[in-house]
């Protein structure tokens, strides 16, 4: 019969092996690699469900948001709770539907696997670079069921449901002069837009820098005659990523977005 001492001696290698495994696990949990992976996971979860960082690539939202500014996109704004949908005057970030919104002029779509992976990690997960989906930022002018036209005969304002909008944020809107250069004069203003009802589940979005913004009404603007309502480009509510809520960089622009 094996003695107690012999049994203890045979058990020692197993115990030491287990201790070695525990030491290895503890060592990994304390390692810089684990801390890096944990940080990436936390950032990815935060950006996936709570808020996302977004770098504004163009001047279409000037002066509200300048080129290159980093903003926080609140992904919870329209996600949780009944009736939480984008409202007129909200600034939203949305995925560009390539069938509706053509790629930027001269843009070449790069399908390289390596570059896609880099965009996924740096953009989608960490929010410090371009994303795999092209994102745009614009201001909501009208939501489903609302009737839109431009412009009012006296002030040249956008009109939604019969009410002229007060838009102090608009920068360099196409010129209009009542009775001389407007929607009824021989000299037609490119600010004028055809009357349309926003379709179900859609949004009409425009840039604050109206003169250069490539937005929902770009194809409707003409200096010769009014276009048909087919000129509008709509944003589907399901493509909205979230609400542009805060500027974080540069520090000189730090603050809420209105």
From TrEMBL:
Keyword annotations: Hydrolase, Membrane, Protease, Transmembrane, Transmembrane helix
Pfam families reported for this sequence: Peptidase_S26 (PF10502)
InterPro entries per UniProt: LexA/Signal_pep-like_sf, Pept_S26A_signal_pept_1, Pept_S26A_signal_pept_1_CS, Peptidase_S26
Subcellular location: Cell membrane; Membrane
PANTHER family hit by this protein: CHLOROPLAST PROCESSING PEPTIDASE, SIGNAL PEPTIDASE I
Name used for this protein in its record: Signal peptidase I
Catalysed reaction equations from the record: Cleavage of hydrophobic, N-terminal signal or leader sequences from secreted and periplasmic proteins
GO molecular function, one term: serine-type endopeptidase activity
Membrane recorded as keyword: yes
Family statement: Belongs to the peptidase S26 family.
Annotated membrane topology: Single-pass type II membrane protein
GO cellular component annotations of the record: plasma membrane
Domain Peptidase S26: 36-249
Highest taxon above the source species: Bacteria
Transmembrane segments: 33-55
Active site (catalytic residues): 60, 138
Organism expressing this protein natively: Glutamicibacter mishrai
EC number annotated for this UniProt entry: 3.4.21.89
GO biological process: signal peptide processing
